[in-house]
Amino acid sequence: MAAEAISALPESVGFVGLGAMGKPMILNLAKKLSAQSRIYIYDVVDAVMEELVGLLPGQVIKGANARDVAQNADVVITMLPEGSHVKMVYLNPETGILPALTSSPKLLIDSSTINTATSLHVKEQIQAAAPACSFYDAPVSGGVIGAVNATIAFFLGCAASDPNLPRLQALLQTMGSKIIPCGGPSLGLAAKLSNNYLSGVITIATSEAMDMGMRAGIDADVLAAVFAAGTAQNTICDVFNPVPGVCPKAPSSNGYQGGFRVQLMRKDIRLAVEMARGLKTRNVLGASALGVYSAASESSDCKDLDSRVVFRYLGGQEDWKKRE
Hints:
By secondary structure, the chain is of the alpha/beta class. It is built from 14 helices and 9 strands. 46% of the residues lie in helices and 12% in strands. The protein is globular and about 65 Å long.
């Protein structure tokens, strides 16, 4: 990392939400910050905090709650499952981030994927109570594999002319490879929901196309190579292929463990459909996609697994290699 970028990094960072994405993001962040820096963390699961403290003793410090984290950090990053969690973490009068804010300027970065209305509400509350602080929506894309490899993209809810952009870019580049300013508050979320809507629909289409070609007698590896060489090429097929054994590092090749849970994809598709409805956008595939992910989320052999498990839900041949 260039010297000017290192000098722009904060000495204290807070991180709330240490799930499948948050934990590897912290590990990458710690590699890039100075040895004197401190990372204050909080999660409702105590075990994951203890694990990170054990992995990075002295650099990672366990917080009592989100308020405690914010009191000690110049920059706070949050990565939470739902909008209700974001409101609780930021606005709770006893344990939230908001009561920890003073006249001292802090950067607050929310990388959760939630509805735009909740994000704007949190931003308004922070601006009213602590005008020196700046809140940004910055959802990510790239999945757990991207979080581990520090190749995720951040969709940043600010303009390219935002005065905080250089600081934001320097920090987020420690955890990702692309930082895209999307224009203004909540537009990072609008971009993310649009992205996940497309990704979710592509996953279903890839699963159906793979199953169709395989039932016709084409080897799954050959079929994936065909898609990669043709107009059907897409990241889901190339990196996260829903057919077990095609991409060795994909969740599908590990029993659909890890990755992006099918319930979270259901949530994101629902949020995208709601956004489209509010914008009066014609959305002909949304209801079908939401139906598939809703049903898979309730299926005992798909629930809590990676969203590419829709291949299983649709009746795909997972043991194709054994049949060769």
